[in-house]
Amino acid sequence: MRRAGVVLACLLVWGTAWPAARAPATLNPAMRATLARAVAASPGFDNRFAAEVWLVDMSRRLAHFVPDVTRRLALLRDVHAAASEAGVSPEVVLAVIEVESHFKRFALSSAGARGLMQVMPFWRDEIGTADDNLFARATNLRYGCAILAVYLAREHGRLAPALARYNGSTGRTIYSDRVLAALRRHWRID
């Protein structure tokens, strides 16, 4: 699967040199333009090629959850930026979002957790400001990634216990097992 993503990214980079009959159907001009905008606005990548490879690969994986390509690439760009800023794996963040909100930006839990990463409102007092909108994608991702980074540091990089802390289920494994299963199933890059 990863090889297909790399091949697709290579086609995006060098696709204009290929005859139209050989170009994949998914690389229409609108898709190219959307991807080009996402790459241009994607901090946290070492170079354009790395951005294209990751965005194309993850976009394909995320298509099941977020069908609109423009929205999908914007989400991926923001996930990568927030994760990179916090020093956490963007693939782990995608797994957390899958389990927490199933990629629903306006998700609201019965406990009051909000947004993609299901951030509790009390975090505004701890790391933000009272008027921060936890349903705003960039804000939610910034909070969620920062919280996850703190818990990873507290757990000396051990992902399962950090995930349990993130979920408020320290000492139990059901939540971390779900996130790790989502990571293996959909987001892992080996």
From TrEMBL:
It comes from the Bacteria. Residues 81-173 form the Transglycosylase SLT domain. Keywords: Signal. The keyword Signal applies. Residues 1-19 form the signal peptide. It holds the Pfam family SLT. The keyword 4Fe-4S does not apply. Belongs to the transglycosylase Slt family. This is Transglycosylase.
